[in-house]
Amino acid sequence: MSGHVGDLSLEQQKALNQLRNNVANILPQEELSDDYFLLRWLRARDFDLQKSEQMLRRNCRFRKEWKIEKLVKEDNIPELWRKYYPGGYIGNDKEGAPVFFVNFGRFDPKGMHNCFRPEELIKYSLSHTEEGMQRCREQSKLLGRRIEGVTVIQDLNELSLSNFHRPTIPHFIKVMQLFEDNYPEFLKRALIVNANYQQVLLEYVDRDTIPKALGGNLVDENGDPHCSAIVGHGGKIPESYYHSELVKSNERPLGDYSSVVIARADCLQLKYEIETPGTLIKWEFKTDHHNIAFGVIKLIENEDGTVEYYEVIPVTRRNCQLVAEEGDYVCEDPGTYILKFDNSFSWINSKNLQYIVEVLSPDENMMNRIGTNVRFP
């Protein structure tokens, strides 16, 4: 049996019923009563009930910590990202599924890396997935049948070595990991534009939904065959937009920082016990030479008594030797939070780290946000 709605074995139906019962305390009723939704998690783990439930529970935690519901509702994606990320939704395929088109040859990873913090790169990338989920729901209502995934067209024609930027790679690997862990079976089909692609495209997507630059009929409001007004034109980002140019003048005097040397292959973990929901942890740090990895970890006590170290902000390398790294995180739940400065990847160089950490109560947090932009989720 396929494991899809209407095609379940007795064992698969039993697993579905048990999963629904096990997660009744964490899911909204709309999702709890949705067989299509629950079966996605079961199929992703070959109907292993324990693994499926674990995956779904982690997804609920992920959605809460990353404030996923706000990504589409608040529509606060910066114009700079919309303009220079060369991807977007251009219509629907022949079966009614949304079509996402991305031109990787026009993607400037170095520019993105210098304009956005790692958490922003991840968050804005995931926003496209959340938009796709919303489009699937709208299509399902419109067509009267379930649409569960998207078709992705990836244009590699202009791809070259200039599209690869080593410091950016870990962040987009993290995006792929989050995608695989939290959006099972969302990718319906991937179509690669390179050699002999047009016949394959037309098999799944109407010509009117394919950009004219790829042999279709679709142009944007300006007549652009690349549909830049729809998906963002991409291209090299001017250095005037780079983050270092925006914040360099705001760095604090060196005397305001605490200082510590982190030995090679070692790390520094700063632990904070947070008692009040809404408490804000703020940080600013830099190194004299070389980068260092940084992230925020929340200790999760599971029902079985085990402790899980959950990265609410992924531990990734930060080029803070160029300009001080700043950020903050709102602790929605009480508990133990760890700021981790990780030099374990470096077997040669120790790092001289200067840092400032502030913990603000909800009232102080509110006053702090009145005149500042919140950079992290």
From TrEMBL:
One Pfam family for this entry, by name? CRAL_TRIO
Which SUPFAM superfamilies has this protein been placed in?
CRAL/TRIO domain, CRAL/TRIO N-terminal domain, Supernatant protein factor (SPF), C-terminal domain
Which regions form coiled coils?
Answer: none
- All copies of the CRAL-TRIO domain together span 77-195
- Protein's name according to its UniProt entry: CRAL-TRIO domain-containing protein
List the CDD domains: SEC14 (cd00170)
Native species: Trichoplax adhaerens
Show the InterPro entries listed in the entry: CRAL-TRIO_dom, CRAL-TRIO_dom_sf, CRAL/TRIO_N_dom, CRAL/TRIO_N_dom_sf, GOLD_dom, GOLD_dom_sf, SEC14/CRAL-TRIO_domain
Q: Which residues form the signal peptide?
A: none
How is this protein annotated for GO cellular component? cytoplasm
Q: Which domain of life is it from?
A: Eukaryota
* Residues annotated as domain GOLD: 239-359
